[in-house]
């Protein structure tokens, strides 16, 4: 069975382009939506994302909506803890496909890391 994990130096979910996330207002509070929009920088990338190292510059203090945690996913998306693994895998794959492509090195690395690699 595949087990979700965040692959280092991926950063696909730090591409925040709002046009690609039309349902933001459905799961963010109005304050979070303001914060989210204030973080959108050049090319749709988060202003806190270091494009060279592909790391978050504020990782310990990143907002709630950047965190893959059971209680947060339950609150934001209504995903129960036992569904979190599959849901998070799908979210990452969707995001990686949108940002880097479905045959990208990032997708291969992700699938390999979670145990779906061939
Ligand atoms: S898309 Fe997934 S694997 Fe990539 S940085 Fe975000 S959480 Fe990590
Ligand atoms: S705050 Fe950090 S984790 Fe959240 S989108 Fe920006 S760079 Fe990514």
What is the string of helix and strand elements? HHEEHHH
Tally of helical runs: 5
Mean pLDDT: 95
Q: Enumerate the strands of the largest sheet in spatial order, edge to edge or round the barrel.
A: 1-2
What small ligands are held by the chains?
A: iron/sulfur cluster
Largest sheet: 2 strands, antiparallel
Query: What's the total number of strands?
Result: 2
* Radius of gyration, in angstroms, nearest whole number: 14 Å
Morphology: globular
Helix content: 40-55%
Class by alpha and beta content: mainly alpha
Number of separate domains? 1
Pick out the low-confidence regions: none
The CA-CA distance between the termini, in Å, is 13 Å
Protein name: YkgJ family cysteine cluster protein
Pfam families: CxxCxxCC
Could you characterize the architecture of this molecule?
The protein has 118 residues and is mainly alpha-helical. It has one domain (12-114). 41% of the residues lie in helices and 3% in strands. It contains 5 helices and 2 strands; from the N terminus they run ααββααα. It has helices at residues 24-27, 30-38, 70-77, 84-100, 105-114; strands at 49-50, 55-56. Strand 1 and strand 2 (55-56) form a beta hairpin. The longest helix has 17 residues, at 84-100. The two termini are 13 Å apart. The mean pLDDT is 95. Bound molecules: iron/sulfur cluster (2 copies). One iron/sulfur cluster (SF4) binds next to loops. The site of one iron/sulfur cluster has 10 residues, from helix 4.
Secondary-structure blueprint:
Layout: H1 24-27, H2 30-38, E1 49-50, E2 55-56, H3 70-77, H4 84-100, H5 105-114
Antiparallel strand pairs: 1-2
The structure holds iron/sulfur cluster (SF4) (2 copies).
């Amino acid at each position: 069975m595949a087990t979700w994990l965040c692959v280092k130096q991926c950063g696909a979910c730090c591409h925040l382009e709002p046009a690609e996330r039309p349902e933001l207002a459905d799961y963010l509070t109005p304050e979070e939506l303001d914060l989210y929009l204030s973080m959108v920088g050049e090319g749709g990338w988060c202003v806190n994302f270091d494009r060279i190292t592909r790391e978050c510059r504020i990782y310990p203090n990143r907002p709630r909506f950047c965190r893959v945690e059971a209680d947060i996913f339950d609150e934001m998306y209504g995903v129960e803890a036992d569904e979190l693994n599959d849901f998070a895998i799908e979210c990452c794959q969707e995001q990686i496909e949108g940002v880097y492509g479905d045959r990208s090195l990032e997708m291969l690395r992700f699938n390999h890391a979670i145990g779906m690699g061939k």
